[in-house]
Design a protein that fits this description.
By secondary structure, the protein is of the alpha+beta class. Helices cover 12% and strands 27% of the residues. It is globular and about 35 Å long.
Length: 148
């Protein structure tokens, strides 16, 4: 024998079951309200090299981080998770610009490592994601002196 709930109890039951789902669908707070914290990034976007074509170096220029240093992030616009920190005076290879030069995709050698091993001074046939052996990430525009 099948039990049929009265319409009022059915509606109450549906509301109770739907509440946890509604809580999950709430949007995340805006990035500008979020404090900068270490941890997992919200987004990751690899730096592209060779975007200027096969006749030019894979990354356009060597630049120097301005005094005070800068944080390196996982993606342009990502400010919640810091991937690395660069000291003032550190050299980086600028490979890509995003959001009207608000962010630069950079490749940089680990401390004590030869920057020539990064391989971004040579041309590449087709634009592609940088996959090492050096470090890569995104820095805010205005944190480097272009052309080093």
């Amino acid at each position: 024998m099948k039990t049929i709930l009265p319409p009022r109890r059915t509606l109450s039951l549906l509301v109770v079951l739907a509440l946890p789902l509604a809580a999950c669908s709430q949007p995340a707070p805006p990035a500008e309200n979020a404090p900068a914290v270490a941890g997992e990034p919200l987004a990751t976007r690899a730096v592209m090299i060779g975007t200027e074509g096969p006749s030019l170096p894979a990354c356009s220029s060597i630049s120097r981080v301005k005094a005070g240093g800068t944080d390196v992030y996982w993606a342009p616009g990502e400010t919640r998770a810091v991937k690395a920190k660069l000291a003032g005076g550190a050299n980086v290879s600028l490979c890509e610009a995003a959001e009207n030069d608000a962010w630069f995709g950079v490749v940089f050698a680990a401390p004590g490592t030869d920057p020539d091993m990064c391989g971004v001074g040579k041309s590449v046939r087709d634009a592609r994601e940088y996959q090492g052996p050096c470090r890569w990430g995104w820095i805010r525009g205005g944190t480097v002196q272009l052309g080093g």
